[in-house]
């Protein structure tokens, strides 16, 4: 299988440091976005450790083996981040990051994630979210206690319930399915998805060249104040 890929990352308009990190390994069929946790020191270190570790994965054969290797690596980084945080004077410190990854091979995809960075697939003019946010508001939505339309503006919208570097027992969720020619996969940090909705992502990526669409999404986020770092990796199956 062959792919076209574009990626964008930007510090936004309110942050001084870009704590996001992206991975593009198109030749291996592997991509990821990591979002260092806002409000925690060294979020940029955490996200870079995740993408650097995924970039250094050993060569394996088969999609399942690749994703298993990626998740094992995330658990190793999780332990490293906890040890790093505990080595500081403030032992209550957290150095964490979200991650969302995508692997494609042999007509199949696998997504894996921890946190609220998202994965989408666009096919035949429709967009489908492939990941489920590990966040307080998503838990409230699932429990029927919050309208999905109100989730992004909820006062606790930035509270995540899972991330790399937070808990000794890192649980990474995954989803799987068919990858077809012309499918477009979007990985994005919440600096994108909390400002641009799913329908706007669909409108751009389903109708414009990938480079132009990615630029337009960045323009939209910046025009709306870009309160956080923003990152995305977009892959089209040829």
Write a brief caption for the model.
The chain is α+β, with helices and mostly antiparallel strands and 238 residues long. The chain contains six helices and ten strands; from the N terminus they run βββααββββαββαααβ.
Can you tell me about this structure?
With 238 residues, the protein is an alpha+beta fold. It contains six helices and ten strands, in the order E-E-E-H-H-E-E-E-E-H-E-E-H-H-H-E. The strands form two sheets. Strands 1-10-9-6-7 form a five-stranded antiparallel β-sheet. The protein has a five-stranded antiparallel β-sheet with strand order 2-3-4-5-8, covered by helices on one side. A hairpin with a 4-residue loop joins strand 2 and strand 3. It is globular and about 50 Å long. The chain starts with a strand and ends with a strand.
Query: Approximately how much helix is present in the residues?
Result: 25-40%
- Runs with pLDDT <50, length 5+? none
In percent terms, what proportion of residues is strand? 25-35%
Shape: globular
* Rg for CA atoms: 17 Å
Please give the number of β-strands.
Answer: 10
What is the tally of helical segments?
6
Kindly name the structural category. alpha+beta
Determine the N-to-C terminus distance: 7 Å
Secondary-structure map with pairings?
Elements: E1 3-10, E2 20-25, E3 30-36, H1 43-55, H2 63-86, E4 97-105, E5 108-114, E6 118-123, E7 126-129, H3 136-142, E8 173-178, E9 184-188, H4 190-193, H5 198-205, H6 210-223, E10 230-237
Antiparallel strand pairs: 1-10, 2-3, 3-4, 4-5, 5-8, 6-7, 6-9, 9-10
Helix pairs in contact: 1-2, 5-6
